[in-house]
Amino acid sequence: MRICASVPWVTIRVPFGPREPARAYRCRRYGGAVEGRPTEDAEAIARARGGDVAAYEELVRRYQDVALRTAYFVCPETDADDAVQEAFLKAHAALPRFRDGAPFRPWLLRIVANEARNRRRSAGRRTGLAQRAAEVAGPAVEPSPEHGYLAAEQRTALFAAINTLRDEDREVIGARFLLELNEAETAEALGIPRGTVKSRTSRALGRLRDALAEGNAVTRG
Amino acid sequence: MAEQRLLQLPDDELGAALRGLAPAVAWPDARLAPNGPDLATRVRARLVAAPPARRGSAWRLRPALVLAIVALLVMAAVAGAVAFGVPGIRLIFGDPGGTPPPAVATPAPSPQGSVPPAGSSVDLGERVDPAAAEERVHFPVLLPTDPGLGAPDAAYVSERDEVALVWGPSDDLPPTVESDIGLLIMQFRGSVSPEPIGKIISSGTVVEPVRIGEGSGYWITGNPHVYFYFTPDGEHVEEGRRWVGDALIWQRGDMTYRIETSLGRDAAIRIAESLQ
């Protein structure tokens, strides 16, 4: 089993049973950043409230990747960076109202999602989720452990299906599966009741199947 | 059929398939350019800069006092982040964090084997004919009169009417932090009210007040830094795509000028004073 030995506080999940053969581990890792423990966040928040800009910068660095990914789900890609910058500035201004002891990430992502929705409304559109260029043709060599069991054409089919979903479905699928937020985090980030997350996720998966079925019909037809 | 297999999966397996998709997504990067400052650095720069609306006439200090305070703040720069506004030019001191670019890299050869225009590796705006740059903006574009420099190799005009004249690297013009730029002269319109220019500068960066003809400016050297400013109507303009190396910045009338060069302070000032 591989673990992230250099970052001991990350979440390590070991799969049980055959359902997730390719995911031997998973770290709370987005891009190059690893998210901190709540105590580290609380310390940075306390210092940032006291006017320590460098402490806030570190907090931003910790969450900038997941924030960008959240915005990317919601608004046009070209607006994502700007939306996240604005969200971090607003979050900084709102730090005095942040409840001590609460998790920072979903609180932040709520602000990010709202900011990104404003931009989506202004733009009147969003862009589709795009595959990394190297992935479109499928891995040329041994598939990586994270997604090796998904064939290239399956990935492409999933991307296409996700991109046909309406905003609400796409957001909940993005939050729950691609960003791997738990139900409570998803509820707070998307601004919906916690009890709604499960049913909304289930409906979104249903509509994803519908979209896959349509894609299948087109492919066969 | 790929879809056929997927749509037969139960919820938990479809969820697992979606989770497996994450590494294949072309997620946006916190750096707008490979060697540029990350989002956290740019957010900090904006926080340190403070909203421009708060700055009023109180910031219009007398030049002598300005120079004295700048000198003081240059010394204070190593101690931590300090923001300072003066008429026309606003300097922000603080460690930008992130990773400055490596020393000059070899430019990647273009696929066709032809040499790309100088400055094309950087997002300076739309490339225009150097002789026609002035037609695109509403101010006179000045050129250095040093015959050794000759005409610029390329010119760009940004969406905000910032003109960039670029000379490619040569024996006389060693490359800057951008390997395809030997000399860069930027020109953009200031305003009658103070138009703050922001720089976020690491503790390894030195800011030196200098005389340029009748006016004054700043020579910034040492560690690469990022640069941004606010327009008179408060819009935040960010040079967030790259780090900047040695630079001279000054104002003349309602215009702001910036030179990036590796030739050193005195040569930069000579070029600045020769602009006509």
Shape of chain A: elongated
Report the sheet-strand fraction of chain B.
Answer: 25-35%
Helix count from the secondary structure assignment of chain A? 9
Strand order of the largest sheet of chain A: 1-2
Structural shape of chain B: elongated
Q: What is the H-and-E element order of chain A? A: EEHHHHHHHHH
Structural class of chain B: alpha+beta
How many strands, which pairing sense, and closed or not: the largest β-sheet of chain A? 2 strands, antiparallel
Report the helical percentage of chain B: 10-25%
**Cross-sheet strand order for the largest sheet of chain B:** 3-4-5-6-13-12-9-8
Mind summarizing the main beta sheet of chain B? 8 strands, antiparallel
Cα distance spanning the termini of chain A: 44 Å
Low-confidence stretches of chain A: 1-27, 140-148
N-end to C-end Cα span of chain B: 68 Å
Strands, helices and their partners?
The complex is a heterodimer of chains A (221) and B (276).
Chain A: E1 29-30, E2 33-34, H1 38-49, H2 53-74, H3 77-94, H4 104-123, H5 133-136, H6 152-164, H7 167-178, H8 183-190, H9 194-220
Antiparallel strand pairs in A: 1-2
Chain B: H1 2-7, H2 11-19, H3 39-49, H4 63-76, E1 82-85, E2 90-93, E3 126-128, H5 133-136, E4 154-157, E5 163-167, E6 183-189, E7 197-201, E8 205-212, E9 215-222, E10 225-230, E11 236-244, E12 247-252, E13 255-261, H6 265-274
What does this structure look like?
- The complex is a heterodimer of chains A (221) and B (276).
- With 221 residues, chain A is mainly α.
- Chain A is built from nine helices and two strands; from the N terminus they run ββααααααααα.
- The radius of gyration of chain A is 19 Å and the shape is elongated.
- Chain B is α+β, with helices and mostly antiparallel strands and 276 residues long.
- Chain B has an eight-stranded antiparallel β-sheet.
- At the A-B interface, helix 2, helix 3, helix 6, helix 7 and helix 9 of A face helix 1, helix 2 and helix 3 of B.
